[in-house]
Amino acid sequence: MKKLLTLFLVLLVFFVVKSTAQDLPKIIKHGNAYQLIVDNKPFLMRAGELGNSNASTFNYYKNYVVNQLKRQNINTALIPVYWDLIEPEENKFDFSLVGDIIKLSEQNDIKIVFLWFGAWKNSMSCYVPGWVKGDIKRFPRAESKDGIRQELLSPYSQENLKADKKAFCKLLSFIKENDKNQTVIMIQVENEIAMLPSVRDYSKTANAVYNSNVPATLTDYLSKHKNTLTDSLKKYWTGEISGSWEKVFGKSIYGEEIFTAWSYAVYVEEIAKAGKTIYNLPMYVNCALNRPGKKPGEYPSGGPLPHLIDVWKAGVPTIEMLSPDIYFGDFKKWTKSYFRDDNPFFIPEHQYDATAGAKALYAFGEYHALGFSPFSAETKQAQFMPPVLGEVFSGEVSKGTLTELPAAYNLIRLAENEITNFNGTDKMRGVLLDSLNQRDTITIGGYEIVAKHDYTLGWSPKAKLPSWNLEGAIIINTAPDEFMLIGTGTVLNFLPQKKENIGILEIKEISTEDGKTILRYLNGDESHQGRHVRIPDGEWGIQKFKLYKY
Ligand code: DGJ
What we know:
It is a single chain. With 550 residues, the protein is an alpha/beta fold. It has two domains: 43-211 and 259-391, Alpha-Beta Barrel (TIM Barrel); 428-549, putative beta-Galactosidase from caulobacter crescentus (Chondroitinase Ac, Chain A, domain 3). 31% of the residues lie in helices and 26% in strands. It has 16 helices and 21 strands. The chain has helices spanning 2-20, 58-71, 83-86, 96-107, 130-133, 158-178, 204-211, 216-224, 231-236, 245-249, 253-278, 309-315, 331-338, 356-366, 404-414, 416-421; strands at residues 26-30, 33-38, 41-42, 45-49, 76-82, 111-121, 141-143, 149-153, 184-191, 283-288, 321-326, 346-350, 371-374, 428-433, 439-444, 447-453, 471-479, 482-494, 502-510, 518-521, 533-549. Helix 2 packs parallel to helix 4 and helix 6 (158-178) packs parallel to helix 11. The chain is globular, with a radius of gyration of 25 Å. Bound molecules: (2R,3S,4R,5S)-2-(hydroxymethyl)piperidine-3,4,5-triol. (2R,3S,4R,5S)-2-(hydroxymethyl)piperidine-3,4,5-triol (DGJ) binds next to loops.
């Protein structure tokens, strides 16, 4: 009896411990897409990245940042950790700022993605500590073709790598020891790593590496993936599987850019691998995109750009994601390049502007994104933001304030269960509409749905403007013949199928305060007497509707 009781108690302790122990945040493959799992549940990062200097003192973060994030329905902050501030003297680490930021964020229900501003920040090395900056012998710089030293560390120096790696590992140990409730959910390694204004480092050491053989890891990868490589990589790969960089990739700045990409990738892999052995958080590398019409070196060369993703993938098996920072046009083109079977989809930076809300909806709906994150989300324009989460966003805010992002994030928050349930399936789609893309026809749940920009109805005086507001929506097929429309400025029509027409059985407008209450049954004028489902321009809504055939 006593033995049985002991066994019972041991089992009890085992199950209690097991059920309360949290797994670390992780990214998993889910159907055709990926999911971020935090606190053992799927998590959508309604994120915002802080302005570069806004986490450099705790007071600034506390007084000027946290509330602004909350007011925009942001649940995840992308926050820099500055190497020069955590290791002002060699081997003397001070993590008090990092610790305070974690604590305050946790109290405010904000998850953190830390951005490692280590060896490189936007091609430069402005965040390396003074003792590194001042010792160019021990910590060599990259050099231009004519031998001029740049203010960026050379990726070919073991000393540079060792010092950067040590600080990065100390950061991960600190997080592991101090973040017991997993407020920190991800790490960005370096920031917009790339080479400027030269296409590559031309220092003596760099030249020696350039003239040596291309590592087999890269050529093996290229051979193995030769059918799926990007067109540009196919163009510059001579097909050789061994030999010098010029033999394998030709003699041009494009071949040199591939060399730079590989060099950065293996450097990042080395520090990410070391960091993950200490604390295995998901990690990604972000990318400054190449301005159309510019050459490598005119744009930051060698980052994880669309045409170099394969080179990076070969070099960073430990890194989960390569992610674009989108600051110029053609959102659909850029996003498409990063939506790959081997790459979870996340936009760590986007210009904070009036289009960000619609694009966030599109990213979650069409690309089943892990997250979306406009840059400097907490600054000036956010001062008059709508009330914090839990209070109701009315859409009535002071003049000059951008309201689109908080409105979109509110919808994503309310529809989080449906978005995560249908993640990775073909039952969730996104649309993004403007004057150039006025319509999109999608097939979902056995129906062909035409999603149109609200101005196509011609009722709005704004329909006559040459350029239309960007509108976006998520469409989910929640059950047979049942759908959810989440978004703004979108009208849906339903195409006849074979000999049957499609009609609307009912439309429920759902409260954007709680995401549950039925506000109204929409019919008559609101559905154009049964012809369409519509959320007008300027309104951010959720509607549930049922279709039938006749
Ligand atoms: C992209 C960088 O990654 C950010 O840190 C910041 O410098 C922005 N550009 C500024 O637009």
